[in-house]
Amino acid sequence: MNQQLAGFAPTPVAARMENHGHSMVKVAMQSGYDLYARTGSMVAYEGFVQYEPNPPAVRQIAGQWITGEGTPLMKCAGDGLLYLADYGADVVAIDLGGDSLSVNGTNLLAFDAQLDWGVERVKGLAKFAGQGLWNVRVGGQGWVALTSRGTPIVVDCGRGEDETYVDPDALIAWSPHLKVKGKRSFKASSMIGRGSGEAYQMAFSGEGIVVVQPSEDSTDRLRARG
């Protein structure tokens, strides 16, 4: 039996954050390097790890986060290995390496506490169905883990002058320095997007990336977590 289960055993630590399969991220916890994670996302841990729900730093920074659009966070601290997941969604671990991302709060699973971060209003998205008014901007030297309903695609927007168009409900994250605007289409409403007969897209231009998930249905994003 041990041989049959060997392929599912934890692997040696190679990085601060790394995937264990498609739907779980393993975090190497170390004293002094705390982590913010989505409340309720812990599925297992080894060693000594403490959890503080809704810590003061989060309340102060995210105080303007509108109820229902924000992501409840907990502070994780200690030494050991921490495993996080989100109802079987795909997880992507990213080493920012000094760059930054603007992340849809519903797709934010965890990030290093020492990163610069804050809640920002996303201009032009209020009219788009399924998309909140607020995003989380994270940047600096550290790691962030994102969730995706299926295997995501990362689109490089710096390859040409053409804009990149994304269904707002499929949008996970993008480089904050990209230019963003909304586009409304009636002729393609039966083929593109979802909603009340109108097709909405977000148009990105400039140099940077856009992370898109293969799901346009945002109903699961409104689910409350315990």
UniProtKB/TrEMBL annotation:
It holds the Pfam family AIM24. InterPro entries: AIM24, AIM24_sf, Trp_RNA-bd_attenuator-like_dom. This is AIM24 family protein. It comes from Streptomyces odorifer.
